[in-house]
Amino acid sequence: MTPSVDPDAVRSYYDYIDAEAYEDVFELFAEDIVYERPGQASLNGMAEFREFYLEDRPLEDGEHEIDQLVVGDDTVAARGRFSGVQDDERVSFGFADFHRFDENGRIAERITYTDRDEV
Predict the structure, then answer these.
(1) 57-77 burial, b if ≥16 CB within 10 A, otherwise e?
(2) pTM summary value
(3) Sign, Cα dihedral of 33, 85, 113, 78
């Protein structure tokens, strides 16, 4: 079965994160989600993914600005900037994210690249 790639779901992801609408975020992702952040531990499965966003995410009070979305066969890549707070300090940095979709139209894998040590 061919994956159902949805760039609008990726745009919604950033809107939901910025609004702290985490239950809406979780609806976009597959139960077996794998979230890779090179240089940091991977998150495997919805339980770890939920715990990260609800309890462990070091970024807060922020806003994502998307400069570009690129749609491939099963993946939507996003390039942009995040401005917000990390460890009580204002931060602003670029990012590149890759969202791979499964055959049910859910994001099954997410990979984030930044120049930060921790996100």
Answers:
(1) eebeebebeeeebeeeebbbb
(2) 0.91
(3) positive
The CATH architecture one would assign to domain 7-114 is Roll (3.10)
The encoded tokens of residue 9 equal 């779901």
Number of neighbours of residue 9 by Cβ within 10 angstroms: 19
Q: List Cβ neighbours of 33 (8 Å cut-off, separation of 6 or more).
A: 43, 44, 45, 46, 49, 107, 108, 109, 110
Q: What pLDDT, in 10s, does the model give residues 35-76?
A: 999 989 999 999 999 999 999 888 888 999 999 999 999 999
- State how far the Cα of 98 lies from the Cα of 85, in Å rounded to an integer: 23
Q: φ, ψ for residue 116 (rounded to 5)? A: -95, 155
CB of 82 within 8 A of CB of 59? yes
In angstroms, rounded to a whole number, what is the distance separating the alpha carbons of residues 11 and 17? 10
Looking at residue 103, its amino acid is: E
Phi, psi of 90 (to 5 degrees): -70, 135
How do the domains of the chain map onto residue ranges? Answer: 7-114
Q: Tell me the three state secondary structure of residue 37.
A: coil
